[in-house]
């Protein structure tokens, strides 16, 4: 998973080592970057009191812009971890160092894209963070919405919640697509975004993580809560790249679980 993707076999990490925890760079970033970002961009934040003060938490958010992965850590009352493309951490020279410092300071954990076992490794990284009582931020849609609609959720987030028992705090982001649309190099100072934290969801009543039906029902509950916060038009389909080959078209047409 990248900062634009939920944990699914199509895009995730190849890393098997334990995820890095927030250290000095993140503490420094929260002390310096967070107040500065709040002062400059003046985000409207609602529902901070809904975020549990301790214990594991999964932030499940809609996804409209690259800046979503900055807006959530800036607005959240607790440190937030999320998986980001390893390329953000691998640059050379001054720009590479600046990129590493910045993404580390906002709680990003580097992962490589992959499939199959790599997807399971990404889920394992997030599970380790939750088992340690930390927080993770995920996008159930899988990738950002280019048309502003809210797409169907993939079940990876629900799997983590059911597997770990962590409560899910739904997040509704409004205006991030106008603040920093796809292709923009810098966020606009003329747009204010809204970050809404909903009440925690206890999904354990749906059953075990091993049940596909439980994962689907839990995912639908998560997406309904996000929709109530964001007010987006519902797409009613998964946000998937266009199928270019007959095999890809068949795979998308056949019923299967999107994780």
TrEMBL record:
Biological process, per Gene Ontology: phosphatidic acid biosynthetic process
InterPro entries per the UniProt record, alphabetical: Plipid/glycerol_acylTrfase
Signal peptide: none
Keywords carried by this UniProt record: Acyltransferase, Transferase
Phospholipid/glycerol acyltransferase domain span: 57-176
A single cellular component GO annotation: plasma membrane
Gene Ontology MF annotations: 1-acylglycerol-3-phosphate O-acyltransferase activity
Family annotation (CDD domains): LPLAT_AGPAT-like (cd07989)
PANTHER family (alphabetical): 1-ACYL-SN-GLYCEROL-3-PHOSPHATE ACYLTRANSFERASE (PTHR10434:SF11)
Protein name: 1-acyl-sn-glycerol-3-phosphate acyltransferase
Natural source organism: Microbacterium bovistercoris
């Amino acid at each position: 998973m990248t900062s634009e993707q939920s944990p699914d076999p199509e895009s995730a990490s190849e890393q098997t080592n334990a995820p890095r925890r927030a250290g000095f760079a993140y503490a420094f970033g929260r002390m310096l970057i967070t107040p500065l970002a709040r002062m400059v961009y003046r985000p409207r934040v609602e529902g901070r009191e809904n975020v549990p003060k301790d214990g594991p938490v999964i932030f499940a958010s809609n996804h409209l812009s690259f800046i979503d992965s900055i807006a959530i850590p800036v607005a959240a009352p607790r440190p937030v971890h999320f998986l980001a493309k390893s390329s953000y951490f691998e640059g050379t020279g001054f720009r590479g160092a600046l990129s590493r410092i910045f993404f580390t300071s906002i709680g990003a954990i580097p992962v490589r894209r992959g499939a199959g076992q790599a997807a399971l490794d990404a889920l394992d990284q997030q599970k380790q963070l939750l088992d340690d009582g930390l927080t993770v931020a995920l996008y159930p849609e899988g990738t950002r919405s280019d048309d502003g609609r809210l797409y169907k959720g993939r079940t990876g987030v629900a799997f983590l919640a059911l597997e770990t028992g962590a409560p899910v705090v739904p997040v509704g982001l409004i205006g991030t697509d106008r603040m920093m649309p796809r292709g923009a190099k810098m966020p606009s100072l003329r747009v204010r975004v809204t970050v809404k934290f909903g009440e925690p969801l206890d999904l354990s009543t749906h059953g075990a993580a091993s049940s596909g039906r439980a994962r689907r029902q839990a995912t639908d509950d998560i997406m309904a809560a996000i929709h109530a916060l964001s007010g987006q038009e519902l797409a009613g389909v998964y946000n998937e790249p266009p199928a270019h080959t007959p095999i890809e078209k068949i795979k998308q047409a056949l019923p299967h679980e999107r994780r």
